[in-house]
Amino acid sequence: MQPQTGPVPHASSPLSVPFWDGCRSRELRYQRCEGCGVANFPPTEHCRHCLSGDLSWQRSAGRGEIYSWTVVHRPVTAEFAPPYAPAIVTLDEGYQMLTNIVGVAPEDVAVGMRVRVEFHAVGTDVVLPYFTSRE
Ligand SMILES: [Zn+2]
Questions:
Q1: Binning pLDDT at 50, 70 and 90, where does residue 79 land?
Q2: CB count in 10 Å sphere of residue 115
Q3: How far does residue 119's CA lie from ligand 1's centre (Å)?
Q4: 77: Cα within 13 Å, side-chain hemisphere
Q5: DSSP code of residue 5
Q6: How far apart are CA 64 and CA 66, in angstroms?
């Protein structure tokens, strides 16, 4: 499966600027709470776990495993070339993100599969974090 050719619909806010800047630098970033130590993603003003406002940005190693996935055969828009596999990945730092799996045949995707981040530019201004099992 391949990355989208873009442009794809996306939204950012002042809160997520460090995340998107990181993607453009091929660096996966997430927030960690300085109060309780829990990883906080997607970014928010206050920790989901303890409500502390003391959150810092960290660099993720970009490795984790597939928690859940599906394979889409009929795309919503022309930019999404089927088949593609939206997935929830659990990062080793303890947070989850919604992404797409690339570089893997649809029939080979599996819960628990070890994956790593791989960045791809879609459209002119967005770099998205995808995940793959290839080294
Ligand atoms: Zn906290």
A1: confident
A2: 25
A3: 29
A4: 7
A5: -
A6: 7
Rounded CA separation 10/40 (Å): 20
Distance 73 CA to ligand 1 centre (A): 39
Whether the CB-CB separation of 71 and 101 falls below 8 Å is answered with no
Hunting for tokens 């406002």 — which residue is that? 53
Q: Helical H runs in 3-126?
A: 17-24
Give me ligand 1 centre to Cα 56, in Å.
11
Would you say the pTM of this structure is higher than 0.85? yes
Q: How far is the CA of 57 from the centre of ligand 1 (A)?
A: 13
Strands (E), 23-62: 29-33, 39-40, 55-59
Beta carbons within 8 Å of 34's beta carbon, 6+ residues apart? 52, 54, 55, 56
Q: If you measure from the C-alpha of residue 55 to the centroid of ligand 1, how many angstroms do you get, rounded to a whole number?
A: 8
User: Quick one: pLDDT at residue 4?
Assistant: 82
Q: What is the distance in A from the centroid of ligand 1 to the CA of 112?
A: 27
Kindly report the number of other CB atoms within 10 A of residue 118's CB atom.
18
Length of the chain measured in residues: 135
Q: Percent of the chain, pLDDT > 70?
A: 100
